[in-house]
Amino acid sequence: MIPVAKTQNDDLLFESLPERVPRHIAIIMDGNGRWAKSRGLPRTEGHRYGTENLRRTLKSCVEFGVEILTIYAFSTENWSRPPLEVRMLMRILEMVIDRELKELHENGVQIRHIGEMEGIAPVLQKKIQYACDYTKDNTRLILNVAFNYGGRDEIVHAVRRIMQDGFAPEQVTEDLISRYLYTCGLPDPDLIIRTSGELRVSNFLIWQGAYSEYYATPAYWPDFDKEELRKALVEYGQRKRRFGKTDEQLESEDE
Ligand code: IPE
Ligand code: IPE
Ligand code: MG
Asked: Which residue among 30, 162, 209, 213 has the highest number of C-beta atoms inside a 10 angstrom radius?
């Protein structure tokens, strides 16, 4: 077990983490609406608190030594929400970029967008592109923002581009498809966390998550704090990732 770095304002002094920390964590940040409702607040307040929480989570990920964090911020299915809420979610991403970009850059965060740009308002598209370009040389943590993202949509786009590029059927391999996904060049997520107690994938990283460990917590996203993240990492550390093999094979590989 590795002692977690002691920081000021940190109640978790000397708490410990397993040695095997996931390199890539993906989070389905769910439950903002129910969090707000339980406090008698409008859903949009839940989304606002959700973005505050993102700051904390990023910091914790850096402290815990996570290299890549992928967050599900807006799905291709979320366009079906009431127009006012959709507008608000667009506005929130815009505000987060305006407010946080400088600090994220100073903290070495490289921002990437995964999802379809088409459909997003041109002004917001430009902001997203600017944030990605501005932070592209940072190496401390890669933050993939899944916005207007759908796993099926991603595969459809990959197949279209593979066909446009003229590949022959026998050239189509798992590796080729991976290279045509938005996550090209990145390792698959080791751990996918979903908050708010839901036990479904909701079209998130359906290709990349083929062998990810899943972790669900009843905590709503605005309440998912460093201790919650630590619990997820501890559980991940106890999981046995077999990748189709037997325990005996894994044990002999370890020797
Ligand atoms: C997650 O919270 C944020 C987005 C999907 C954009 P929800 O808005 O889904 O919150 P619940 O699930 O209704 O509580
Ligand atoms: C998944 O949450 C999408 C994001 C967190 C952005 P939803 O709240 O949209 O998922 P469903 O509709 O309950 O499956
Ligand atoms: Mg939800």
From this structure: 30
